Amino acid sequence: MKRRATNESEDLTVYGVHPVMELLEQKPEGVARIWIAREEDRKLGRLLRTARHAGVPVSRVPKSALGRRLPRGVNHQGVAALTAAMRYRSVAEVCRAAETGTGLLVVIDGVQDPGNLGAILRTAAGAGVDGIVLSADGTAGLTAAALRASAGTASALAVARESKPARFITEMTGKGYRSVALDPRAGISWDAAPLDGPLILVAGGEARGLRPSVLRACNQRVAIPLAPGVDSLNVAVATGVLLFEALRRRRRT
């Protein structure tokens, strides 16, 4: 199995059809993301089906872009895998952690910067969050870069991937959870939202925010009012503001 540390993130990469397939079949919880060369897409049907079944996110990139991530001249066969620095839990494990814990979960949809994800993980661990669910589509994974940014706190959390976060939120709502989405366009201030009881805080990506399907699944949208001239907060900071308000209310009761 061929692997190397990438220049950008120092995360380990496995490349070639058979090594990547072996990793997917034997240790899918150890794969953060699969990169597929668009030109080779039709030849990799079985590998793509295996990744989809395992819930591993797949990014399609030009063949030239894939080549730049790998050692010069290697035969990557149109596919590479970014390995996870920490084992993913199942969604069921995350739910069990919430049932036996404080009933506080976080759903992340579209946060692409591993530094931001790591900061959210660190904040969530500090707030006593029971588990985090990452959208499998367009969200950074548990790479070494994300774990470094978490300053070692990520291991205290149960982190799962979910290909359909809107469905997950809807199912948890049926179990008595309230879902509150951070949305700068919302008309309700963060400190006016009900944050007691079983709660899912939902935060979106740096540029586009939450996808419409995820927003529709939430019970409520809240915004953090800002001073004139400031359009938005960093997603990790905004998540921390709401998490610690929820924690304050839990301690009060």
Mean pLDDT: 88
Order of helices and strands: EEHEHEHEHEHEHEHEEHEH
The CATH architecture of the largest domain is 3-Layer(aba) Sandwich
CATH superfamily of the largest domain: SPOUT methyltransferase, trefoil knot domain
The rough form would be described as elongated
Largest sheet: 6 strands, parallel
**What's the β-strand tally?**
11
Beta-strand residue fraction: 15-25%
Oligomer: single chain
> Which CATH class of the largest domain is shown?
Alpha Beta
| Ends distance | 54 Å
Q: Output the CATH topology of the largest domain.
A: Alpha/beta knot
Helix count, DSSP H or I runs of 4 or more residues: 9
Rg over C-alpha atoms, rounded to the nearest angstrom: 19 Å
Low-confidence stretches: 1-10
Strand order of the largest sheet: 8-7-6-10-9-11
Number of domains: 2
Please state the structural category: alpha/beta
